């Protein structure tokens, strides 16, 4: 990791530790004030605990033009991204996709191309519904590795993270506490406040928290829909297409709506927010990722709507191409933050217990 | 520009409480804030809590804190230099302020780590004073209050028993307005170090100012020269000992040093000059500003050893560190022999330290040493050794306007019909000396609300309307 960046973050954390006015906003400050000196691992943990709610920035007496020049949300965002790049396996693609929206777009286009090409070359002779475009076994052959690769990659990264931050053993209570914090997005609630400061300077709103939860729960519902489909196919021998009143659609349609709507709201909030309070260099990559997630949701919904029409094969290729790119980019895109964030929350629950 | 009923000079807590209260009574309010937006809020931006009377627990305060106890705490620090009736009224009024503050956007948090002793008496602002100021600006602007930043008032013209005109500079131009009522809430004069030096003596040039550089006392000076009744010792300021490396202005909370009780403090000649263990911090916090100000070059040096390093809150700058006392002396620019002698003498005077207790008066004292250290006296022997420099840090000045319980100002001839004052600029009416944590915000909130209410009442009155009409008529007649 970059030592000058860590050093700057440490300088800022030490000033925060002498002030402590922001203690009530989020988990970062109680974790920070529990210590006097900050190792690189401590800074990495604090950075991944920070949800960039920006409450501390707008409340700070020491932001520029003050000579102490504090901007804790920005420096922690930079350390956070730097840590993901240094923990990524394989490391090479991390820097490219993390920071570069164009690279994300190119990856998605490649995903489209691959699926179109496969559909053309390997057009199945028979099949029903989507399987007229791409056979089930072909889909599995593409997506099983595309799903497993990010899991392996992230497992390696998280192990590195755990070692760097001195994680130690974990209890079920710690995990439960971390899931509780994520489920309610407690760290974007502003403590006893009214949400976070994001799209309109120091105004507290729940907009970002709600947008984030829509995306997160939307994604989880879509994932559950896919899992339900897999179970129906293999366990119950009920292949697609599924009717409206089936588990995959009952989970997938609301999920797609939440995911798409949440992503649209998130994009609009990010466009209004001050880029200087995040990692400005990663803005494009983050934006590309949110758009991609939104497109996954939207194209899935379009597929439901157009499943019976002549546009279906095109929509299917677009949707599957986007999903393919999304999976393969997971360890290198903003998607990784969910995994690191959970690790940081578990680590913090452990600190509180100790 | 639209005609405003009320002009408020200043943009901190008291000004904003006044603006919100007046605007809710239907008055059109203009705030003239001398600072740019980034530094708006005066000293309020550095505050962290509000001392509040309460009979039962109310979030975030626990248990109860009754008027008599509160008043007794105040009288202890002011040594009786307090208008007791006004103080009692302020304390009584603080209780209803807490819900009012929450209604107008202020959020609280439980007592900060390291300040648990204040959890019963002081309500801490979530995010500190700047977050409070931000919330009030949002509320005020939503109520239609107009705010001008970098608007420097140069003259508030008195005409017998009323203010006739307010003159201010803004964006390179001088403006003259005649509001129906004026509220002064622009703090003390500590930002003007020339004035401080005239009042205190040339040593004041070496003082650091803990808060805003924009409290220069221009309006205070202007009105006092026109005969407005003053209160408070014009030569005095409240000063504490802070890290000598702090910036000249606006260093705020992080420059405080809590390590004096565990240290010895020497002057630039390496000599001790006061009992470092006299009482628990922060009760003795305030006197050290004065003590250091009386030393040559207005500087002191705190010396501790490694066993005391983790006993106090960290501060913004790391201590100077050395493996031996001569090395520390050389790094700090102190005479090595003198420092060694002082430390040796102190160490020899230390006795049994087994009763050492960092948060209580433990009676672990020196014997036969002058000045004695009466608590926490442990020999300084365990390297590495650490040092901090100390300088006086001015928090506020005591000179201000004498107000009545309606926050109204007066001259020898009687009340000024349309002039009120709130916050630090009239705090001398209650705080004759010393300081009680969180009481400045109490005075500002209570008197800000009163001033806003009274100014709005006046602005809506027949008297104000008649006067405005006659002035208008006179203007056309000319």
The domain count of chain A comes to 2
How many β-strand runs of chain B? Answer: 20
- Helix percent band of chain A: 55-70%
What is the total domain count of chain B? 2
- The arrangement of helices and strands of chain A along the chain is HHHHHHHHHEEHHHHH
Mean pLDDT of chain A: 92
Q: What's the story with the biggest beta sheet of chain A?
A: 2 strands, antiparallel
Q: What structural class is derived from the secondary structure elements of chain B?
A: alpha/beta
Low-confidence parts of chain A, pLDDT < 50 over ≥5 residues? Answer: none
Q: Strand arrangement, largest sheet of chain A?
A: 1-2
- Low-confidence blocks of residues of chain B: none
Question: What secondary-structure arrangement, pairings included, does this model have?
Answer:
The complex is a heterodimer of chains A (354) and B (478).
Chain A: H1 3-19, H2 28-33, H3 40-49, H4 55-59, H5 72-87, H6 92-99, H7 101-121, H8 136-164, H9 172-184, E1 196-197, E2 204-205, H10 207-234, H11 247-272, H12 283-306, H13 312-329, H14 336-353
Antiparallel strand pairs in A: 1-2
Helix pairs in contact in A: 1-5, 3-5, 3-14, 6-7, 7-12, 7-13, 8-13, 8-14, 9-14, 10-11, 11-12, 12-13
Chain B: E1 6-9, H1 13-24, E2 29-32, E3 49-51, H2 67-78, H3 84-103, E4 108-109, E5 122-125, H4 129-142, E6 146-148, E7 152-159, E8 162-170, E9 173-177, E10 181-184, H5 193-200, E11 208-209, H6 218-225, E12 230-231, E13 237-243, E14 264-266, H7 287-293, E15 300-305, E16 320-322, H8 325-332, H9 336-349, E17 385-397, E18 400-401, E19 408-411, E20 414-421, H10 439-459, H11 462-477
Parallel strand pairs in B: 1-2, 1-10, 2-6, 10-20, 11-17
Antiparallel strand pairs in B: 3-5, 4-5, 7-8, 8-9, 12-18, 13-17, 14-15, 15-17, 16-17, 19-20
